[in-house]
Design a protein that fits this description.
Length: about 200
């Protein structure tokens, strides 16, 4: 009988140890998976922030190079000079007033055409950072945390109107808050309960 009790006690203690080991293994695996997800989310969020910064920089450079009042005045002045130079060249060569005007308009049109091509190339330079932002947003929009997915979608929508800096700043701030909340360390249940009681 003693041997039977000893055997039963060994079996019970072995079963308890096996259950405890399985629970600890599962808990450790779950924690590692959670940490890996948090790390991946941080990397994806950083890629999104870099893409947003690149897009803002490209848009600011485009605005500075092509859309400022000084640039418009420069283009106007160069157009007037091209018209005047072409007209003067045609007049010196013995052309009539109409011929010199047509040559002047041709010179101005050629200059404006080159400016337009350069402006389109500069606008196309914004497309690459926008594509990188969309690529960085794709995994974030599939995130299991709905706040991160929603904030990413709103940020991507705001990026389409990159000139509206107030809207973009608000979307960027909401995105940062959502990512911070999703990557914040989770308190154990007993700490959450204790802090709930303290409140």
């Amino acid at each position: 009988m003693d041997k039977l009790i000893e055997l039963a006690s060994t079996l019970v203690s072995g079963a308890c140890i096996a259950v405890l080991a399985a629970w600890l293994t599962n808990r450790s695996r779950n924690r590692q998976e959670q940490q890996a997800e948090v790390g991946a989310l941080r990397v994806q969020a950083d890629a999104m922030m870099v893409a947003v910064a690149e897009l803002r920089g490209a848009a600011a450079a485009n605005r500075l190079l092509w859309e400022g009042p000084a640039e418009r005045a420069r283009t106007f002045l160069l157009t007037v000079l091209a018209f005047t130079g072409g007209a003067a060249r045609a007049r010196i060569a013995g052309g009539t007033d109409v011929q010199s005007g047509l040559v002047g308009f041709g010179g101005a049109a050629e200059l404006l055409s080159r400016e337009r091509v350069a402006n389109k190339q500069a606008a196309a330079a914004v497309r690459e950072p926008l594509t990188r932002a969309a690529t960085a947003a794709a995994p974030l929009m599939r995130c299991s945390d709905t706040a991160v997915a929603t904030a990413t979608e709103q940020l991507l929508t705001a990026l389409a109107g990159v000139e509206d800096t107030a809207r973009l700043d608000a979307a960027l701030e909401a995105f940062g808050r959502a990512v911070n909340a999703a990557t914040a360390p989770r308190l154990p249940w007993w700490r959450r309960r204790r802090s709930g009681l303290a409140e």
